[in-house]
Amino acid sequence: MLVAAVCIGCIVGVVAMRGYVLQEFGNAAEALEHIDQSYAIEVRVGDTTVYSAAYEDPGARRSDSDSDLPACMEFTAPVPEQAAP
Asked: From residue 44, how far is each of 34, 39, 63 by CA, in Å?
């Protein structure tokens, strides 16, 4: 009886840990998506500009609210087929 209770507790714990790990990966993905990679560079020789380039990061395309699943992860179960009457 004690072994069964410990096994059930371990299964529940592993499932909870899986959820926490997925949430952390989702949060890390959101953080990486929000890094601003804009830059501007100008190479000058004396008073003359030899080369200039710039890139404006468009920003994050998505953002998750606290009620959403992490980083656009969707968990769906297939709908069982209905038997014909």
From this structure: 31, 17, 39
pLDDT value at residue 70: 56
- 69 DSSP 8-state letter: P
Domain ranges of the chain: 2-54
Are 34 and 60 contacting, i.e. CB atoms less than 8 angstroms apart?
yes
Does pTM top 0.85 for this prediction?
A: no
Q: Are 23 and 70 in contact (CB under 8 A)?
A: yes
Q: What is the rounded average pLDDT of the residues 35-45? A: 88
Cβ partners under 8 Å of residue 23, min gap 6: 70
79 pLDDT above the threshold of 80:
no
Dihedral angle computed from the Cα positions of residues 60, 77, 14 and 70, in that order, rounded to the nearest 10 degrees: 10
